[in-house]
Amino acid sequence: MVAADSPSQSVKKIIEINPYMLGTMAGGAADCQFWHRNLGIKCRLHELANKRRISIAGASKLLANILYSYRGMGLSVGTMIAGWDEQGPGLYYVDSEGGRLKGTRFSVGSGSPYAYGVLDNGYRFDMSVEEAAELARRSIYHATFRDGASGGVASVYHVGPDGWKKLSGDDVGELHYQYYPVEPTSVEHEMTEIAIA
């Protein structure tokens, strides 16, 4: 599952590198978009030359090596490369210093501390696609609710053996009423939280 908010109407924070691989953006939008587009080109060239898709590990290593060669030059990139290849699912974190980590779940960006709280609390290895999508939406909502630099639309993608598929794009303002229920009080212009048992 890959999810991101997008406060801008014109910039998507989830970039479709190829039909089996997605990248997320955190940091400078121009840097992230340029290097993801560059990675997409290199992945396509690899596929044409070798008659097979590049692995997720190979693509993330390629991006990490490129960014490492530009370290100290002011790039601002924090990204996750997620996809499905011959080895199965793959998820890597790559940053502008050339760092690269493999993992099962990551959160990147200014809202990530809030998202990690929800992810760590709700994650199970055996989750269904619907449960994982709901956890992803809830994580994005809580990050956007607590972080002033986040907001807009929460996009959720599922990556599987047949490629990625966009599952939803919800306005986080609408998610507020679902995840943070309130009810009117007797005092005008005041709301209280609904106690959830």
TrEMBL record:
This protein's superkingdom?
Eukaryota
A GO CC annotation given for this chain: proteasome core complex
Q: What is a single Pfam family found in this protein's UniProt entry?
A: Proteasome
Q: Where in the cell is it found?
A: Nucleus
Membrane spanning residue stretches:
none
Q: Which E.C. number(s) belong to this protein? A: 3.4.25.1
Say if the entry is tagged with keyword Translocase: no
- EC main class here is hydrolase
* A GO term for molecular function: threonine-type endopeptidase activity
Q: Can you supply a Gene Ontology BP term from the record?
A: proteolysis involved in protein catabolic process
Matching entries from InterPro entries are given as:
Ntn_hydrolases_N, Pept_T1A_subB, Proteasome_sua/b, Proteasome_suB-type
Record field: catalytic activity: Cleavage of peptide bonds with very broad specificity
Q: Which UniProt keywords apply?
A: Cytoplasm, Hydrolase, Nucleus, Protease, Proteasome, Threonine protease, Zymogen
What does the UniProt record say this protein does? Answer: The proteasome is a multicatalytic proteinase complex which is characterized by its ability to cleave peptides with Arg, Phe, Tyr, Leu, and Glu adjacent to the leaving group at neutral or slightly basic pH. The proteasome has an ATP-dependent proteolytic activity.
In terms of PANTHER family, this protein maps to: METALLOPROTEASE TLDD, PROTEASOME SUBUNIT BETA
Name of the featured protein: proteasome endopeptidase complex
> Which organism is this protein's natural source?
Striga asiatica
